[in-house]
Structures are given as C-alpha cells and as structure tokens.
Amino acid sequence: MASLVCTLQDHQDDVNWCAFSTKLLATCSGDKTIRIYNSSDFSELPFSPLSGHGYSVHCCCFSACGQFLASCSTDATTMVWSMTTGDIEAVLEHPGRSPVRICAISPDSVHLVSGASDGTLALWDFPSKQLRSDTTMVACSFSPCSQMFVSGSTYGDLRLWDLNVNQLHAEKNAHDLGVSSCAFAPSILSGENLCHPFSV
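Structure tokens predicted for WD repeat, sterile alpha motif and U-box domain containing 1 (200 residues):
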C-alpha cells in the first residue's frame, strides 16, 4: 500500500517533470527553475533553486553517476548543471531554436539526446557537449546498453536508432493519439539480443 511521504510546495508554477538520482530529487517547473532536494529527507540543497532558463523548464534528467543534471526549456536550450556546485556546465542550443521538450542522458553518460516541439532531435556528445546530428522526435529513451535509442512522435510512430542516427526500425502508428513518453525495459530479456522499448 502506497502512502504519502512528503509534499513539496516550493515551485511557483506547474511542476513539469521530476527525476531521481541515487541521492537527489530534481523537479522542474513553469516558473523557469529547477529545484534540487536530498532524497533521504527531502531537504532542499543550498544551491537550489537553479536559475538560468528564460522560459518554462519541461524536463530534467541525471547522468548515471549523479554528478550532472540536464534540463531543457522553451528557451530552445538544454543546460547541463553540476550537482556539486549548482553551476551551469554547458548551454546546448537546439538546432532551429525550437522549444526543447524532452532530454535524456545515455546510461554510460557518453550521449545526450534532446527533442524539440518542431519534432527535431539533437544527439550530443555529452563529455564534449558537441552536436553529433539531428533528426525528428518528441519522446526518447536510451537502451540500457547505451548503443541505441528509441524515439516517438506526435503522429504515433516509434523509431529505433543507432548512435550514428541510422534508423534501425520503424513502427508506424504504434499509438493512434501520438507518443508522449517511451522507455526501455531495464534489462535485456532472456534469450533476446535486443532491449525492448515500452511507450505510451
């Protein structure tokens, strides 16, 4: 039976996303900020809130080690933050300057993918913060092996890509009202060579 542990009421607008690392909870909001909490007692960290985006923050995600947080916004940027100091490590401007709605860091922290409201996807080299390539998407998730990712579109399509943004598989009309989110199963299924994505 689930029970309420804590209620956080620090944001001044809608909370659009939340993400956990092993030690932290991050929440992002229409108030243009990201707030960082200790996940053991839900106390807010001294450098929180993080301010830097010019408009609503739509999504945030931690690197696997928990040292970095990526956030994306209507201001057409994805920002990378240090979780040691709260400082901005990088500002990644999306090609075409469209509002960025979704971002994900690969489990090996080598790549970051971001998706904008115009349907474009940008694949970044995470250590160097350099753009590798771009294509189309609105939802995304990396496989546990970090060697491929799945994207979803407002048209309901699911597409599987490799790290060179070569399309490996396309599932047309997977959802009749569009794909709003997608994720891989956390481990490879027994007897299979590929991880399997789940979408809604």
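Residues 14 and 30 are 5 Å apart (CA to CA).
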